[in-house]
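Example 4.3 (complexes with small molecules)
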Amino acid sequence: MRLSQATLDRLPADVVRPAYDRASVRPGVVHLGIGAFHRAHQATIFEAALASGDLRWGIIGVSLRSPQVRDQLVPQDGLYTVVERDGSDERLQVIGAIVDVLVAPEDPSAVVAAIASPETHLVTLTVTEKGYKLDRATGSLQAGDPDIVQDLASLDRPRTVPGLLVAGLAARRAAGPGPLTVMSCDNLPHNGTLLRSAVLAMAQPHDPALAAWIAAEVAFPQTMVDRIVPATTDDDIARLGQTLGVTDQAMVKAEPFLQWVVEDKFAGARPDLAAFGVQLTDAVAPWEDAKLRLLNGAHSAIAYLGGLAGLDFVHEVVAIPAARAFVEALWDESATTLDPPAGLDLTAYRAALMARFANAALQHRTRQIAMDGSQKLPQRLLAPIAERRAKGLGVDTLALAVAAWIRWQSGRTDMGEAFAIDDPIADRLGSAVAGTADTGARVDALLGLLGFTTDADLHATLVAAVDQLAQVGALAMLERYRR
Ligand code: CS2
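Answer. The structure with D-mannonic acid bound is encoded below.
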């Protein structure tokens, strides 16, 4: 038996569940990219808005690729459980905020209609770094991407995120329900600005007047989102089924921690986000940089070094004292590039991050974080490296993390186990590795694909680190940090 509206009253008494009238909920939010992160993060805040009695904030979720999430959620009437795990503590909450799930490739016009609907006030996005289809070096749309080429030619059946948004905004402008807030919730610096430029670059060639309307009427606030949400496993679903007494195919698991910092720049209606723990501010960038460079930077370093060492989970890596010392050294370097906002105590933040990484109940896979490295490294590791180099400061520890990414591209762990590189530019990364046996040339070719160039000192540091990683392995490199 599945979790659903009909089976909700069978759940154990301590499971939190919607106490509001779900039938009266209106869909005020369209969310693009209805993956686990959205369900464990923004959806819980909209759930709090609904629970407070403001029933305008139901979510129409949009899957951008496969029907899988729709097929998990629709038979459950949109209900799913957030399983919060910390050590042996577990808190279960059934979320009722999702009112419908659309699958964009099946019916893009339904997504367009949802964006144009007068009931929609907010469009939110978690489409990952690669979903924006922006060329990092130039800031323009990826001219070589076949789906971008198609959407630039015609928006009859949009295939990309910028294409769907522009078609939706065009329909909204024509129908006249007025302003809209479109909010990126991806781990990119200046995510609102990036999204706005992707949308305007798509709109301009279709209709300059539409582009001007979007520029004037649509708000694209910056945001910082934070919650560790590992991919759900079959074992997680089986365990939850035992507890609930019904099967939940759409569950997500997460740590208790949740942070959402949003630029106070909206067009049209919005929920009282501050009442539900969201931090509204005029300056998101300092929060975003601290999170990207400390949490995500360490995550990527842990993923590649731990992954090369054959360690499956983040908590296993930070259980090694030398690896913890390495993470602290990485933070010592990155922290000097930050301008921490008032209210962020870096010492406390770092201590809290280490404790979050050590949460063994999450079972957060290094391979999951290693995914899409080409999209993640620039803001997490390369930006602090460039800033430190510009000041003449050393970057040995950040460079070791980048060297581990470079070695990762060989597709073998230190024990020789082969794995596939999961990255949107895996082909080009593979050619760069296969193209030369010379470490220096390989460093240049791989970082060149990320639009990054090195100075002579940094180049030498990276080459030495890649060669040493190959000789002694990731664990021995980490051991050098033992204090
Ligand atoms: C992780 C993030 O997979 C990754 O790249 O670094 O998903 C991380 O868990 C979140 O950003 C935490 O907020």
